[in-house]
């Protein structure tokens, strides 16, 4: 499954549609303006909130939290001691599962893996659309909404780190 995401998604307060590879609107990213911290909602085509994404306020390292139905789903933060490439860890709420995100985040060329198995590839290399990147969900049983939320979080954290 391939989803196309507009790069402007990181503008807080802006709303953007995520489309599938046939141009159908699939998810709406609703950026929440006027908040003390970064916040987004990932909604379906009928406006139901599927995922909430917010910046954790009091954390030693920049951290984003992904919630579903008001319950924590995952926590995203930069991996310590990642010198050569951008490297992020996604700790799922079950306590034992971690996703690994690595690659050139700011170039929108990275992968999401679980235990060495590829779940999704994020890339803008093969697209002719400017300011757009693709989220290719590789595994059929993977949660596309979660993987899109992970991509949004990682890009947001990398952009903030570059600004600092």
From TrEMBL:
Gene3D superfamilies: LURP1-related. This is LURP-one-related/scramblase family protein. Belongs to the LOR family. InterPro entries: LOR, LOR_sf, Tubby-like_C. It comes from the Bacteria.
């Amino acid at each position: 499954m391939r989803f196309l995401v507009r790069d402007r998604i990181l503008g807080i307060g802006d709303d953007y549609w995520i489309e599938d590879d046939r141009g159908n609107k699939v998810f709406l990213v609703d950026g929440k303006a006027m908040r003390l911290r970064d916040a987004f909602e990932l909604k379906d085509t009928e406006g139901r909130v599927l995922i909430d994404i917010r910046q954790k306020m009091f954390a030693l390292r920049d951290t984003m939290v992904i919630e579903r139905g008001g319950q924590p789903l995952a926590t995203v933060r930069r991996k310590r001691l990642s010198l050569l490439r951008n490297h992020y860890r996604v700790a799922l709420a079950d306590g034992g599962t971690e996703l690994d995100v690595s690659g050139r985040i700011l170039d929108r060329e990275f992968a999401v893996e679980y235990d060495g198995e590829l779940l999704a590839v994020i890339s803008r290399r093969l697209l002719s659309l400017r300011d757009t990147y693709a989220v290719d969900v590789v595994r059929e049983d993977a949660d596309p909404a979660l993987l899109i939320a992970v991509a949004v979080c990682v890009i947001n954290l990398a952009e903030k780190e570059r600004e600092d």
